[in-house]
Amino acid sequence: GENVEQHPSTLSVQEGDSAVIKCTYSDSASNYFPWYKQELGKRPQLIIDIRSNVGEKKDQRIAVTLNKTAKHFSLHITETQPEDSAVYFCAARGGTGGGNKLTFGTGTQLKVEL
Amino acid sequence: DGGITQSPKYLFRKEGQNVTLSCEQNLNHDAMYWYRQDPGQGLRLIYYSQIVNDFQKGDIAEGYSVSREKKESFPLTVTSAQKNPTAFYLCASSILQGGLYGYTFGSGTRLTVV
Predict the structure, then answer these.
(1) Contact A87/A38 with Cβ under 8 angstroms?
(2) B2, pLDDT greater than 70
(3) Which residues pair with B32 in a beta bridge?
(4) Which of A107, B38, B50, B87 is the most exposed place for a label (fewest CB within 10 A)?
């Protein structure tokens, strides 16, 4: 089955700096890669996703890049703000059956300091 | 509540008891999922269902059971066979057509063994 690794586990940046979170996946047939943000005590919320036929996608201050050859994808947050502080999860949908089943990374705790 | 409702929000279980967590969605989504969240381990898949009266085991199904008698409902039972049930449980649902959609999550149930 699919295996997703996520790094770093914790990330601390100064307000206004950029933050990058990286994930690798094992199933070369994986075709969908969403990112979720989870604030303390709340449910995960989808913030951006990318499909395997696209190399990059951007939505205001967040962007995701995908390198299918290397089997890794990254989340980029620019001009970070205190409200960006949360746990971020990457996920991958394996291409070998299982419907829309997602495998998640272990999460990155992002802290944006004033 | 985002179209997917979990109850109760907090649940306490005594040793040897079975408990059932409720998950209901009004999004007309075909697929539903149960994940367990533990600190530092991300989200791990317990069970998922793509259609009524059918479900599949995820990565950590031992000690859990589910049913899918209605499209809207996917309850999870934590049995006494689950040795370490204290965790945060998240239910999710998704569209299946095309297979490339993110999840909508419920607000979660925090289960504690007392």
Answers:
(1) yes
(2) no
(3) B49, B93
(4) B38
